[in-house]
Amino acid sequence: MATDYDAPRKTDDDSESIEALKERVPDKLSGAVDSEDSDNPGFELAGADLSDLDLDVVVLPPQADEFTCVSCFLVRHRSQIDHESKLGPICRECSA
After folding, report:
1. In the predicted model, what is the mean pLDDT of the chain?
2. Where are the alpha helices (DSSP H) in 30-80?
3. What CA–CA distance (Å, rounded) separates 95 from 83?
4. Residue 67 lies in a domain
5. Which domain of life is it from (predicted)?
6. pLDDT at 36
7. 0.90 cut: is pTM over it?
8. Pairing of strands 81-84, 89-91
9. 3-state class (DSSP) for residue 80
């Protein structure tokens, strides 16, 4: 016997109204909006004011045993090189 999967299914559970279902579900997803921007949440360190702190970053030049993969642009050790393309070296992860 063929079954029409696009046809609406009627069961005994469908007899419950939408209002009854709303009463059973907690109101976690209400329309209340937090005061904090939901697209850009902020993180605060407990009791730390870091607004006047300058961060110093030391950038090392490329080492003799490193290469930059032309596919993923990650700096890797020479042992992870798979092959050289006409654009430059390709790592093992990108060649797979």
Report:
1. 78
2. none
3. 8
4. yes
5. Bacteria
6. 52
7. no
8. antiparallel
9. helix
